[in-house]
Structures are given as C-alpha cells and as structure tokens.
C-alpha cells in the first residue's frame, strides 16, 4: 500500500512509471483502452471491480474504507483505486492536435484532453503544463487518456509534422476562428491561465486566432477556449464535413 500512496506525488509517479485511477468509470475506460493495470484496491463488497481486475489480469486487493481513503486523492473516494502503468508518450504522427502550452491547472489540462478526444484530435503537452498523469488530470479527462493519442513536446518543431499549420490563440488582434475551417490540418496552441501563450510562441505560429467576446469579458479559461476552437476546427455549427485525414 505504501508504494501506491507514493503515486500521489509526481516524483513517485516518475520513479515508478505508474499512476493511480480512482472509481469504476475510470477503471473501465482504462481497461477498454488496453491499459496495463497492476493492482486494484477495492472494498470487499465491490464485486464489479473485483471482476474487472480478474478480467484484465490485475491483482485484486480488498481494503477497508479507511485504507481506501489513504490510497485515494479525494476526500470521499469511490471504490476502486487502481495502479496503472504510464505509457510512453510521443507526438501523434498525424491528424489535428490540441496543444496545452503552459497550462498548469490540472483541471483545465484534463478537460483539454477530454476535448481532444471528443473532437477526434490528438493531444500534446508543451512545457510547464500540468503532469498529464496526476490523479486530478485523470479525473478531469474522464477517460480521455485512453480515447485519443497523447504526447509531449518541448518545442514547436515537433508539432509541425504531417504538414500541420501552427495556430496560436491570442487575446486580441488575431484572425476570426472561422479561418480554422479552411485549414487542412492544424495544431491548436492553448496558453496558460494567467498569461496565455508566451509572446515568442505566438509570434512563431503560422496563424493567430482571437475568440470574439462581445460581452466584454477579458478572457476565457484555457479549457473553454480550447473547446470552442476545437469545435470550430471540426466544422462548427455549419456541420461542414471535415477534409482532414
């Protein structure tokens, strides 16, 4: 159990190459996505999770409610808590990408992964983005880690494969989001919550986009901006078929 508790911290996850999943829905998503699950801790009467563990070849470890709370990272966890291997990550070879660049909030990072999965995009974490495999990011992504390719990149050149156009989101003076529908393949760069994309990253992009906000709000949070632009890139309200491959 002590080894599993160490996975609460990034250092423990990095050292072991594993992380924690909490709850039956995330466990089911991970199993369906072919994740390597080593161990499943659950309440003795959680027969559903016990069967899931047996089905994927994981060790089943019955625990008390008090122990489950120590293993979990939420105040009132739902059985089970599972130990799952963190897969190798690389920038997806093809298709559109949703890129979190300096998005430090785990909730926003997880929601961006969920958004990428919803719109058939790959997801990439740039520098200074929240740990993709922290329990909070996993919860916010709601299974998106196993429904879309996930990678990491330290620089923009890694995103230019497959003839992608680099699209930076900026608060002002950018093009209308409608231009996204004209792009064959793109990497959408979403900046951090406080300051957006670094100026040098925005300047190096091929296209800069600003979401119009006639209501006067200064800015949107990273996850909301990413969802709006991913929707627009997919064809938006027009329902126009995508020309991407």
Can you describe this structure in just a few lines?
With 245 residues, the chain is an alpha/beta fold.
Can you give a write-up of this model?
With 245 residues, the chain is α/β, with parallel strands linked by helices. The protein has two domains: 2-85, Ribosomal protein L30/S12 (60s Ribosomal Protein L30, Chain: A, 2-Layer Sandwich), CATH 3.30.1330; 97-238, 3-Layer(aba) Sandwich (Alpha/beta knot), CATH 3.40.1280. The protein is built from nine helices and ten strands. It has helices spanning 2-5, 10-16, 24-32, 47-56, 65-71, 106-118, 135-141, 199-204, 222-233; strands spanning 18-22, 37-42, 59-62, 81-85, 97-101, 122-125, 150-152, 165-169, 186-191, 207-209. Strands 7-6-5-9-8-10 form a six-stranded parallel β-sheet. It has a four-stranded mixed β-sheet with strand order 1-4-2-3. Helix 4 (47-56) links the parallel strand 2 and strand 3 (59-62). Helix 3 runs parallel beside helix 4 (47-56) and helix 6 (106-118) runs parallel beside helix 7. The model is unreliable at 239-243 (pLDDT under 50).
Layout of helices and strands:
Layout: H1 2-5, H2 10-16, E1 18-22, H3 24-32, E2 37-42, H4 47-56, E3 59-62, H5 65-71, E4 81-85, E5 97-101, H6 106-118, E6 122-125, H7 135-141, E7 150-152, E8 165-169, E9 186-191, H8 199-204, E10 207-209, H9 222-233
Parallel strand pairs: 2-3, 5-6, 5-9, 6-7, 8-9, 8-10
Antiparallel strand pairs: 1-4, 2-4
Helix pairs in contact: 3-4, 6-7, 6-9
């Amino acid at each position: 159990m002590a080894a599993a508790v160490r996975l609460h911290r990034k250092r423990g996850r990095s050292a072991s190459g594993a992380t924690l999943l909490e709850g039956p829905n995330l466990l089911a998503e991970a199993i369906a996505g072919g994740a390597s699950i080593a161990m499943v801790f659950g309440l003795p009467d959680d027969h559903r999770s016990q069967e899931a563990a047996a089905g994927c070849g994981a060790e089943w470890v019955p625990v008390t409610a008090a122990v489950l709370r120590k293993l979990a990272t939420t105040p009132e966890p739902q059985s089970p808590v599972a130990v799952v291997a963190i897969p190798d990550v690389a920038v997806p070879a093809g298709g559109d990408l949703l890129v979190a660049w300096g998005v430090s909030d785990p909730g926003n990072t997880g929601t961006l992964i969920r958004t990428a999965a919803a719109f058939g995009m790959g997801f990439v974490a740039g520098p200074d983005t929240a740990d993709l495999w922290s329990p909070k990011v996993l919860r916010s992504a709601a299974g998106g880690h196993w429904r879309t390719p996930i990678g990491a990149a330290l620089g923009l050149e890694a995103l230019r494969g497959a003839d992608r156009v680099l699209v930076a989101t900026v608060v002002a003076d950018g093009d209308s989001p409608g231009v996204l529908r004209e792009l064959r393949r793109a990497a959408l760069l979403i900046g951090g919550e406080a300051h957006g994309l670094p100026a040098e990253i925005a300047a190096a992009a091929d296209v800069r986009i600003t979401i119009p906000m006639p209501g006067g709000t200064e800015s949107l949070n990273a996850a909301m901006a990413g969802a709006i632009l991913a929707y627009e890139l997919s064809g938006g309200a027009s329902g126009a078929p995508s020309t991407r491959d």
